[in-house]
Every structure is written in structure tokens, then in C-alpha cells.
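Predict the 3D structure for this chain.
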Amino acid sequence: MSGNSREYPTRPWVGIGVLAFRGNDVLLIRRGRPPRLGEWSLPGGGQRLGETAEACARRELREETGIEVGPLDLLAVVDAITPGEEGRPRFHYTIIDYVARWESGEARAGGDVTEVMWCGSADVARHGMWPEALRVIGLARKRLGLA
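Done. Predicted structure below.
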């Protein structure tokens, strides 16, 4: 077991994600730490004690990508459970995903992110993303009238 309290947890952790759109493109990040180290994903991270979900969404988006978005719209709740040793979950996150439109800032990698990119709908599936991330991107596109 690692010293990371999120690995082999005693309870699920709350993660907040943001599907940020600029025109028809969604903002993707490459993860710089587990789970899914090195994979393309959506910006987001762990909610802090005393922090509202929306405040967490905006903080994580700003820290990881440097951008600001307009109003946040609740989109989906996803359970992300990574199996571990002896049948115990190695990671267990309940992820609350919001969708929003880009307002300002130039996307750049920050925090625990190694790369960022604006990605068109035709290219999203080419990046080997987690199926649930692809599913919520599809939901977001429908919500915004882009599908």
C-alpha cells in the first residue's frame, strides 16, 4: 500500500470534473498521476472539506488548465472504481461532472497535468480515454446542442 490516503481508501472520495467547451471542442488533459497516469481525461480533482462542488470545479479547472468558464450545469455522476489487491478497491471516486462554456484564459498544463488540448468531437475517441469519459462527453455535447 502506498502512503497516498486515496489509494486503498476506507471510503469513496468525491471528485469533481468539468467538461469545458470552446465552440465544438472539449478541453482534455493528460493525467500526471494515478489513477490513469498518462491517460487523456477531463479536468478535475478532489473536493476539499468545506469547499462546495462548484467552487472545487472552478478551482481544479483553473489549477490544471488556466481557463475560466461560465455557468456550470450539473451533467452526470460517475463511479470510478479501480480494482486492487485481494478484491479491495485500489481507488474509489464518486465523480460529479459539470459542463460549461469557456470564457477566458489560454489552456496550459498545470498542477498534476502534463498536457492539455482542445479536441474536436471526431478526434476524442482516438485518445484512448476511459469509456465513462467518452460517455459523458457525448452527454455534454447533447446538452449543449452540439450532437
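The mean pLDDT is 94.
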